[in-house]
Design a protein that fits this description.
By secondary structure, this protein is an alpha/beta fold. The protein contains three helices and three strands; from the N terminus they run αβαββα.
């Protein structure tokens, strides 16, 4: 994630926008991405107990979020849960 942010930073200011698809970064990275003018794409990973997004989502505005399903590939069940 940090590498992607670093690659995009020199390109800012030219109207570049987009969505960080299937965002799974930390709060610091989320704030950088939002400050750069991008949206955070959140999907099924947001429901995973150890996904880490439980610390990010409460701290950001929903105005910066795009909900993604990508069903059935990024569903709300991790592969280990499906196996049970």
């Amino acid at each position: 994630m940090d590498e992607t942010i670093a690659l995009l930073e020199p390109l800012l200011g030219n109207g570049l926008t987009g969505i960080f698809h299937c965002f799974s970064g930390n709060l610091e990275q989320a704030k950088k991405v939002i400050a750069m003018g991008f949206y955070l794409g959140l999907g099924g990973v947001a429901t995973f107990k150890n996904g880490g997004l439980d610390k990010v989502i409460p701290e950001i505005s929903l105005d910066n979020v795009v909900l993604e399903t990508d069903s059935p590939y990024l569903g709300t069940c991790s592969p280990s849960r499906k196996a049970k």
